[in-house]
Every structure is written in structure tokens, then in C-alpha cells.
Specification:
The chain contains twelve helices and eleven strands. Helix 3 links the parallel strand 3 and strand 4. The protein is globular and about 60 Å long. The two termini are 30 Å apart. The protein binds guanosine-5'-monophosphate and manganese (II) ion.
Length: 327
């Protein structure tokens, strides 16, 4: 097992990044590791470098205000951690990772098979990068701040311990973290359920405008650039739309896509149990987990949906996850 403390011994400056468009697990794993390293090595510089947009709902986590968002050149790191992602999804932080003396990759995405670091801890069976970190921490240097971050990442990646990635081990880990004493009810409400009025409106619009196909086994909704600008919404306002669509009775796969540039879409996929959407996302240069994945696609909405449906239909017909990621 990766020994984080050993790997960081003697380091003067350590960097940490998660994926672009960071979600709860990406942000919280970075902040948990930062505080853990500061507890273990007082005096060492630990930078968390993340790209905007960074959701403000996580601003209760220790270190949130210190997140570096500007990526200046000329900063070099002894150790660099890529959390909750592969090399491609590091975005601007990729330059720091590549130039670091030692690179460490900690992730739970099944599409990131081997890891991209000199040292790797990759486990697709684990609910979240935060749960994986908790295992790697082995109970040392964990305090209430670290516990809050880890619990938050677990809550967001498991949909409050509901998604199939939740294991008995996840619950044991969450139980141990709760013992550090924080208001878990308020935390869950804030990071998972609460939405701004605007977010609720955009959710409502996407549900209203959604289109079912394949006899109601798939559903898609999308937002073009013009509509996003009309409402004044950003990617962080779309959290939860695709899972709400997946909740529709009879739906095996839900798709949500938003336009990032002319006829360029960021696509989110969710599946209830039959389809492995990571395998589909990988075909389009993306990745993720069996039940939640994403990719970027270009063309009209019709083209994108058509391309995705071929693979969805194939899996539904075969009734299995027959194909491997490489095929
Ligand atoms: P979401 O739909 O919430 O953006 O992402 C669902 C899951 O798929 C997350 O675990 C996310 O990290 C992963 N994912 C989303 N987009 C991409 C992508 O373009 N590439 C890879 N490798 N993973 C992605
Ligand atoms: Mn994650």
C-alpha cells in the first residue's frame, strides 16, 4: 500500500490537484490531503491548485480559501499529487505534475487503470477518492478538519451513501469519521441537497425539456450556450440534473449535455444497473465509473445522442457488460 508519509519525507514543497470542473470528491480529497500533510509535516509548503469554477458550497472545508487558482509558471514541486483523475483531466495543473520530482496518482475511476504517477494508488472498487485516502491515512494525522473533508467527498460521490459504489466498508469509514464530531445533517443538506433558486430553475427547465427515446429506456436533456447565458448559469449549476433524469421509472441511461463552445458539448451519463457508461464514455475520449461517466463530444445534439445510443443499445441488447474498456 502506498505510504504517503514516506513518499513525502524531506519534501519542501508539495502540490495537489484534482480534475478540472472539480466536484465534491475532487475538491475535498485535495483539501483533506493538504491538512493531513500539514499535520504530519508542520512547516512544509502544501499548495492545492484547482481550476475555476470551484463550487462555493465547499467553502466550509479547511484550506478552501487558500486554494490557488492562477497557475503561475516558475513554481516547482518536490512531490505532486493528482487526485481523483488521470493526467489529461489535470488541466493547467498538468505542467506542475509533469515537472515534479515525484508524481503520485490516487484515484478510483475504472477508466484510469494503471495510474499515471511514479507511485499510484488506484482502486475502482472504492466509492470515492476520499474513502481511498482515509484508508491510506491509516488513522494517523487525521483530525476533525480532515474528517469533514473526507466525509464530504464520500457523501457527494455516493449520493449520500445510496449509489452502488457504497460498500459496507464505506459505511464503516463514514462511521469512524462521524466520531470526530461535526454536524453531518447540516453538512449533507449543504453539499448535496441545497440548491440556489437559479439552480432549481435550470433543473426544472431541463426536466421539462427532456426527451425520452429507445422506448423510454433513455432520456436526454441539454442546454445550448444561448440558454446558459440567458439564465447566467455555469457548469457548477448543473450538478444533480443528470441523476434526477436517471430517477425516472423505466430509464436505464440518462444523458445531460451542455454546450461549452459552438457544437462542443460536455456530456454526463448515468446508468441504473444494466449499462456500463464508463465503457461508452471511454470510446469518446472520456471516462468515469460504470454508473456515472462523462466525455466531451462535438457535433449537433442529434449527432451526439445518435453516437451514444449505438453503444447504449448494443449493451442493452447484449444484456451484459460484455465489452472490455480496450475493445
Ligand atoms: P459528471 O457527469 O458528474 O461530470 O462525471 C461523472 C463521473 O465521470 C465522474 O467520476 C467524473 O470524474 C467522470 N468524468 C466526467 N467527465 C469525464 C471525462 O471527460 N474524462 C474522464 N476520464 N472522466 C470523466
Ligand atoms: Mn471521485
Amino acid at each position: 500500500m502506498l505510504d504517503i508519509i514516506k513518499e513525502c519525507e524531506g519534501a519542501g514543497r508539495i502540490g495537489i490537484s484534482g480534475h478540472v470542473r472539480p466536484d465534491g470528491d475532487a475538491i475535498s480529497s485535495c483539501l483533506a490531503l493538504r491538512k493531513y500533510l500539514l499535520n504530519a509535516f508542520p512547516g512544509v509548503i502544501v499548495d492545492v491548485n484547482l481550476e475555476e469554477p470551484i463550487p462555493t458550497i465547499f467553502d466550509g472545508e479547511t484550506g478552501y480559501a487558500e486554494i490557488r487558482r492562477d497557475f503561475p509558471d516558475g513554481v516547482s514541486y518536490d512531490v505532486y499529487f493528482a487526485l481523483d483523475c488521470n493526467r489529461e483531466r489535470l488541466g493547467e495543473a498538468g505542467k506542475y505534475f509533469d515537472a515534479a520530482k515525484k508524481r503520485i496518482n490516487i484515484d478510483h475511476h475504472e477508466s484510469n487503470k494503471e495510474g499515471v504517477g511514479d507511485e499510484n494508488a488506484i482502486d475502482p472498487e472504492i466509492s470515492s477518492t476520499c474513502e481511498l485516502l482515509y484508508k491510506l491515512f491509516e488513522g494517523r494525522y487525521v483530525d476533525r478538519d480532515v474528517a469533514i473533508c473526507l466525509y464530504t467527498g464520500m457523501v457527494t460521490d455516493t449520493g449520500v451513501f445510496q449509489y452502488s459504489c457504497t460498500s459496507p466498508e464505506t459505511m464503516r469509514c463514514a462511521a469512524e469519521l462521524m466520531q470526530y464530531g461535526f454536524d453531518h445533517s447540516a453538512l449533507i443538506q449543504r453539499v448535496f441537497y441545497e440548491k440556489t433558486y437559479l439552480q432549481t430553475q435550470i433543473l426544472g427547465r431541463c426536466l421539462m425539456e427532456s426527451v425520452r427515446f429507445m422506448e423510454g429506456r433513455c432520456v436526454v436533456s441539454w442546454l445550448d450556450k444561448k440558454t446558459q447565458e440567458f439564465y447566467g448559469v455555469l457548469s457548477k449549476d448543473f450538478e444533480g440534473i443528470v441523476s434526477q433524469l436517471r430517477n425516472i421509472r423505466g430509464v436505464d441511461v440518462s444523458i445531460f449535455m451542455y454546450e461549452t463552445a459552438n457544437q462542443e458539448y460536455k456530456v454526463s451519463l448515468r446508468s441504473s444497473e444494466k449499462v456500463n457508461v464508463a465503457q461508452i464514455a471511454v470510446r469518446f475520449g472520456g471516462g468515469g465509473h460504470a454508473r456515472a461517466a462523462g466525455c466531451n463530444m462535438s457535433g449537433t445534439v442529434y449527432d451526439c445522442v445518435n453516437n451514444l445510443s449505438k453503444y447504449i443499445e448494443k449493451q442493452l441488447k447484449e444484456g451484459s457488460e460484455g465489452e472490455t474498456l480496450e475493445s
